[in-house]
Amino acid sequence: MARLFPTWFVTPVLLILAGVGAALGQAPWGLWPVALGGYALGLSLMTSSARPVLAGWLFGTAHFGLSLHWIVEPFLVDAAQTGALAPVGLIAMAGGMGVFWASAAGLGRRLEHGALGMAVALCLAELARAYVLTGFPWALPGHVFIASPALPAAACLGAHGLGLCLLLGLGLVLRWRAAPAVLGVALLATPFVLAALLPSAPPATGAAPTVRLVQPNAPQHLKWDPEWMGIFFRRGLEATAAEGTPDAVIWPETSLPQLLGRSGDVRPMVARASGGAPIVIGVQRYDEAGAPRNGLAVLTGHGGTVETIYDKHRLVPFGEYLPLPGVAEALGFGALAKQLAGRYAPGPGPRLIDVPGLGAVLPMICYEAIFPQDIRRVERPRAILHLTNDAWFGTYAGPAQHLALARLRAAESGLPLVRAANTGISAAINGRGEVLATLGLGRAGHLDVTLPPALPETVYVKTGDWVVGATLVLLLIGLSVLGRRKTVDVTPDRA
C-alpha cells in the first residue's frame, strides 16, 4: 500500500477507520469484537506515529463523529431556525472530545512504553472526560461491553474498570512479547469471567408490584403544537386507563401538558384514568423565585394531589441551559438559545422519593441516567425510575445508546430500572442489566412490567471509580519511573 499511497495519506485513513471501528462497539451496532480491533489498531498507530497528538485527535474525532452523530438531531427539530448549525455542532462535539484522546497520545508518548503507555494515558483521559466540567461519560471504551455477555461485570468494575480491562489488555498484547501478551489476554477475559461467576438475577415474585410505563409517542417538532398536544395527552390517558391494575403508573419526561402550577384541571383526569394508582409524571414548573424547572411529580388520589416534587439537577448543555451565553451568542448559537423554554434552574441533587406501592425509588430524568456516581450519593433504593424524552435524539442511535447506558446503571448498582420514554424506548431492566421487556421506538401505548427484586449492594456502588483512578495513578507513576531509568546515559567513559 505504501507504494500506491504515501504514508501521510495511509496513516490518517487507517486512524479514521480505527476510530469508526471502535465506535461500532457502541449501541445500536453493538459490534464489540470489531471495537476491540478498532482500539488495537488505534493504539498501535498512535504508538508508531511521528505525530502522536495529531494521530490521537484523528482517532478520537472519528470515533466520536460516528458514535455521537445523533447530536445533530436537536438542531433539526426546527431545521429552518437551527438546521444550519447541525454540522457545526457535530464537528465541535467530535473535535472537542477528540482533544482528550490527543492529550492521551501526547502523554502516552512521554511515558515511552509503547502501546501500554498509550493505553494507560487513554484510560486517564476517559476518566477525566467523565468528570471534568461536570463530565460527559458517553461513548466510553468500556461501554462496548454493554452489548456483550460481560455486562454484569460492571457490578464490580463499573464502566471505567471495563475500559481499563479493554485498553490495558490490548496495550499489553501489543507489546508483542509472550508474558505481557498472556497477561493482556487475561485482562481482556476478566469481565467475561466475572460476569459468569456473578449470580443470576432472581425472577420477580408474585408479591412484586406491577408498574405501567406510558409511551405517548410525541415527536419533538409536534410535542408542543397546540393542535397536537391534546392528541398526545389523550394517548397517555388511554394508555393509563387500559385494562389491568398496575400498582403505579409512570409517564415520561415533560408529559404533563400544562405547567404544574396551572394543572388543576388536567391532574384529576390523569388520576381518574389510573383508577387511583399513584402516578409519576414528568412536569415543568416555575419555582418560588420564578425560575423554570424540569422535574417530576408524584400524584395520588382521585384528584391528582401532588405528593412529591423532584427537580432535575443535571441539566443538558445547549438543551436546558446555554454555557457561556455571551460566547455562544457570538458563535451563532443565538437561535438555539431562543428555543429554550427557559434557562432551567437545577435541582439540589439526587434524592430518593417515596412512591406508594413501590417504596423508596431513585428518580433520574433524561441526561441524569448517564452519571453512575449519583447512585452512590443516596441510600439504597428499591429501584431506579428513569423518565426521559428521547425524541430530541432522533430515531436511531441516540435513543439506543441512552437505553444502553440505563442498562449499565442497572448492572453497576444491582438495581432494577424502569424507564418511560416519550417516543421510546421504554423498558424494564433487571439488576444484571438484562432487558426484560421493551416498547420500541415510534410506538404509542403502554408496557406493564413486574418490578424485579434488587440484588445485594454491588462492589462498584461501594467503591465507585476510586479503585480505577488509584490504579491508573500507580501505573502512571510506575511507567514514568521505568521510563526515566531507560533514558539514563549508560555510554561508557572514553579514555
From TrEMBL:
<feature type="transmembrane region" description="Helical">
    <location>
        <begin position="84"/>
        <end position="104"/>
    </location>
</feature>
<feature type="transmembrane region" description="Helical">
    <location>
        <begin position="54"/>
        <end position="72"/>
    </location>
</feature>
<feature type="transmembrane region" description="Helical">
    <location>
        <begin position="30"/>
        <end position="47"/>
    </location>
</feature>
<feature type="transmembrane region" description="Helical">
    <location>
        <begin position="466"/>
        <end position="483"/>
    </location>
</feature>
<feature type="domain" description="CN hydrolase">
    <location>
        <begin position="214"/>
        <end position="453"/>
    </location>
</feature>
<dbReference type="InterPro" id="IPR045378">
    <property type="entry name" value="LNT_N"/>
</dbReference>
<keyword id="KW-0472">Membrane</keyword>
<comment type="function">
    <text>Catalyzes the phospholipid dependent N-acylation of the N-terminal cysteine of apolipoprotein, the last step in lipoprotein maturation.</text>
</comment>
<keyword id="KW-0812">Transmembrane</keyword>
<dbReference type="InterPro" id="IPR003010">
    <property type="entry name" value="C-N_Hydrolase"/>
</dbReference>
<feature type="transmembrane region" description="Helical">
    <location>
        <begin position="116"/>
        <end position="139"/>
    </location>
</feature>
<keyword id="KW-0012">Acyltransferase</keyword>
<protein>
    <recommendedName>
        <fullName>Apolipoprotein N-acyltransferase</fullName>
        <ecNumber>2.3.1.269</ecNumber>
    </recommendedName>
</protein>
<comment type="pathway">
    <text>Protein modification; lipoprotein biosynthesis (N-acyl transfer).</text>
</comment>
<feature type="transmembrane region" description="Helical">
    <location>
        <begin position="7"/>
        <end position="24"/>
    </location>
</feature>
<feature type="transmembrane region" description="Helical">
    <location>
        <begin position="151"/>
        <end position="174"/>
    </location>
</feature>
<dbReference type="Pfam" id="PF00795">
    <property type="entry name" value="CN_hydrolase"/>
</dbReference>
<feature type="transmembrane region" description="Helical">
    <location>
        <begin position="181"/>
        <end position="201"/>
    </location>
</feature>
<keyword id="KW-0808">Transferase</keyword>
<comment type="similarity">
    <text>Belongs to the CN hydrolase family. Apolipoprotein N-acyltransferase subfamily.</text>
</comment>
<dbReference type="Pfam" id="PF20154">
    <property type="entry name" value="LNT_N"/>
</dbReference>
<dbReference type="InterPro" id="IPR036526">
    <property type="entry name" value="C-N_Hydrolase_sf"/>
</dbReference>
<dbReference type="InterPro" id="IPR004563">
    <property type="entry name" value="Apolipo_AcylTrfase"/>
</dbReference>
<keyword id="KW-1133">Transmembrane helix</keyword>
<keyword id="KW-1003">Cell membrane</keyword>
